[in-house]
Amino acid sequence: MKLKKILGIDIGGSGVKGAIVDTKKGELITERYRIPTPQPATPEAVAKVIQKITKHFNWKGPVGAGFPGVIQQGVARTAANVDDSWIDKDLNTLFSSATGCTVHVVNDADAAGMAEVKFGAGKGQKGTLLLVTVGTGLGTVIFSNGKLVPNLEMGHILLHGADAELYATDAARKINELDWDTWAGRFNEYLLRIEELVWPDLIIIGGGASKKGDKFFHRLTTKAKVVPATLKNEAGIVGAAMVSKFYTKLEAHEMAR
Q: What pLDDT score was predicted for residue 247?
């Protein structure tokens, strides 16, 4: 089965973004199409947005979608920065019904990590690799010698008695009107705490903040080398498409048995 082109969608706290992806090269072959995340961000409201994105691209094939929460077999178990009504929803079924396409949903940070390991800053890297996506939330992914540890929710560790996402995200920087140096100190605290727990050989910074690395990388003091994500905030879209390609092939193989 040839699945070179797949529609990838990244569901975020502020925007839902999609593009058609060349899964062999790990590149977007269309411009990203972005729709603001509806408020409240209920499953049904976001499903309508995903439907609009598929219609925008006149898309009829497989779709991969990254979601900010734990995903088990297409079912949401947590729902960071969206709405609690997502919990225990079968998102594969919901989005497939809304779009008329076969949709596979994965944790958004996992999607970004897979893209970076296959095509970006983590390509060919050995040992333990940590990816942190910095935006509305803090997505965390760990790879050990290329093997993914799925659904890692280390963006929610406690810092100063509260959820780290309230202290060290790019959203927290904006809400609290922090200058880059002050925010970098907070983010550095977070990375040092994570480093104490998992001891990565390399840390990759992705998400929207990765485009501003020149404003804060110089303040980071981890023992592990810190590098920006090569795919930047396109990684989630590329990775979601990769996941859909994998599951579409797997399902076709099972049906042929």
A: 86
Residue closest to 139 by CA, chosen among 168, 119, 180, 162: 168
Instruction: Determine the pLDDT at residue 253.
Output: 65
Token readout for 191 is 């990375």
Spans of all domains in the chain: 5-110+234-256, 124-229
pLDDT tens digits, residue range 187-211? Answer: 999 999 999 999 999 999 998 888 8
Summarize the confidence of residues 154-161 as an average pLDDT: 94
Share of the chain above pLDDT 90, in %: 83
Q: Would you call 233 exposed, middle or buried from its count of C-beta atoms within 10 A (0-12, 13-18, 19+)? A: buried
Say if residues 18 and 99 touch (Cβ distance below 8 Å).
Answer: no
Q: Are 183 and 173 in contact (CB under 8 A)?
A: yes
Instruction: Report the mean per-residue pLDDT for the chain.
Output: 93
Comparing C-alpha atoms, which of 92, 146, 80 is closest to residue 118?
A: 146
Level-2 CATH architecture, domain 5-110+234-256: 2-Layer Sandwich (3.30)
Domain range 124-229, its CATH number among 3.30.420.40, 3.30.360.10, 3.90.550.10, 3.40.50.300: 3.30.420.40
Angle between helices 43-56 and 91-99 (to 10 degrees): 40
